[in-house]
Amino acid sequence: MSILDYVIMLVFTIVIIVAGLSFGKSGSNMKSYFAAGGAVPWQISSLSLFMSFFSAGTFVVWGSLAYQYGFVAVAIQLTMCVAGLVVGLYIAPAWQKSHSLTAAEFVSKRLGIKIQKFYSYLILLISLAYTGAFLYPVAKIINVSTGFSIEACVIVLGVLIIIYTVVGGLWAVMITDVLQFVVLTAAVIIVVPLAFDRVGGVDQFLASVPESFFSPVNKEYSWLFLLAFGIYNGIFIGGNWAYVQRYTSVDTPKAASKVGYLFAGLYLISPFIWMLPPMIYRVLNPNLSGLQNEGAYLMMCKEVLPKGMIGLMLGGMLFATGSSVNTTLNLAAAVFTNDLYKSVKPETKPKKLMFIAKLATTIFGVLTILVALLVPLAGGIVEIVLSVGAVTGCSLYGPPIWALFSKRHTGKSILWCTVLGLSINVYFKFFYPLNTGESLSRTEEMLAGAVIPLILLISYELWARSKNKIAVDYTRYKRQLDATVGSVESEGEEEPSESSESQNAFGLKVLARTMGIISVIFIVLAFVSGNALDVTLLIGVLIGVAALIINRRSKNEIKISG
Questions:
Q1: Which residues are listed as membrane-spanning (predicted)?
Q2: CA-CA distance, 188 to 339, in Å (whole number)?
């Protein structure tokens, strides 16, 4: 990397941090800090959802698989498109109709406080494993590009992410997600044609890859795996407590559906573009193996991007991958503060609750850093993301989703479906190999994780239907929901809060200004680097135009709130 790359990366880092910190005053109460006021534009919420989900694995997890197996990585990600459609049609609007600030709040209302506390503690524990796993790829990217030790990268980046997440809350998380989407989409448009040119063109690329490189499946990742992974994604995207905030932070069920639909649309297109750099790098350097595959994506970028652009894309990669971390940190703090601490001390004043929320974010951030340092000992990021997801995803998030629609399941039945599902999957993952000397294949592991919880949920549903049982928990919840629908805007607000229009206007204003700065960076780089001048200049101009449009909308929001 050149000095210019380091300078650009530093400038981009400062832009992101300042953008996040600018929301320090807007997160003055629980609803604004954890739900961004409850009426976020659905486009922003959806882009934030996309980046939070996309960034966790694109560069390292799916990039590694794209380098090894080619189109298999694209096929795997297309299951996320189907999952997004299902979420948009059914699950996202159901969450919004629950009128709950967090998923934990819904669990408390629908299934009872004891069940909610069980889920809260369990999800906080598993969230630490996920966020640690998500922080590791960020450090891996810097490690590959700069040579700095991966331990130092984990610590420094973890601290930066903690700072702006603590100060700005959910608005800071979402706006920085959108900025990263803009930068990385622009950068990959530049990378792909340069990468093809580097290996002699598209025809030469097609002629040089392994024979099975464009097969959508292989022995390890079969059609049955894709089916199971699709089920898992639908449940994970629809039920992960961090992602639920994207559905509850918009103002209508229709807007929540649009969050899912845009997510699906992005995953219909993006895998075909985003997986090309590591696939092309297979032709340029076919000798990577083991954990080296995790660096294939960035290695391709370093090969072809001009000076300065490498630093910009690296900065975008860092904070995009980090968006999964800040999303989960905000969720963990929300669950701890709103659903655990507040339930024990309901008389706590709003100002102290905000202090507890920010302290919780900091503590979970520090624990995340410690977990990330242990990732290499667990076999690498691919093993953690797929195995932890298979064992826990559907068992943990499936039952609460089922409770959104079922009037027959009780708090106890939902709890037992979770406990039994987790227990059976943990047995097959860890104890079955010890007893038999054989391990489940990747497909069998994912299929068991997806199907077993569904079998348990359906079995109880059919039994309760045969007995014509309606859960007392559901009757109580429905009565409470009907009674509070008319006053949902003021529910739980003990302190004066900013209007959602005011928060939206400020958020759009920050987004417009930072996009304006990014536009200038692209335009300057177009002339400084010389390589791919026309494309880089055009992208810079388009980002600038988008910034002007967003700025105009922010002024309209100000007029409405005024």
A1: 6-23, 44-65, 71-92, 118-136, 148-171, 178-196, 221-243, 255-276, 309-336, 356-378, 384-405, 414-434, 446-463, 510-529, 535-551
A2: 41
Whether CATH 1.20.1730.10 fits 3-342+351-494: yes
Residue with tokens 């159901």: 94
Task: Please give the distance of CA 298 from its chain centroid, rounded to a whole number.
Answer: 20
Give Cα 503 to chain centroid, integer Å.
22
Hey, what are 18's tokens? 């300042």
Residue 536 in contact with residue 529, Cβ under 8 Å? yes
pLDDT digits (tens, 9 = 90+) for 57-100: 577 778 888 999 999 999 999 999 999 999 999 999 999 988 88
- DSSP output for 81-125: HHHHHHIIIIIHHHHHHTT-SSHHHHHHHHH-HHHHHHHHHHHHH
Distance CA 359, CA 362 (A): 5
Tell whether the model's pLDDT for residue 326 goes beyond 50: yes
Read off the pTM. 0.81
Res 276: pLDDT: 92
Residues in the chain, overall count? 562
Q: Any idea where the domains of the chain sit in the sequence?
A: 3-342+351-494
Give the mean model confidence (pLDDT) for residues 211-227: 90
Interior CA angle at 56 toward 230 and 292, to 5°? 105
Q: Copy the structure tokens of residue 38.
A: 């409850």
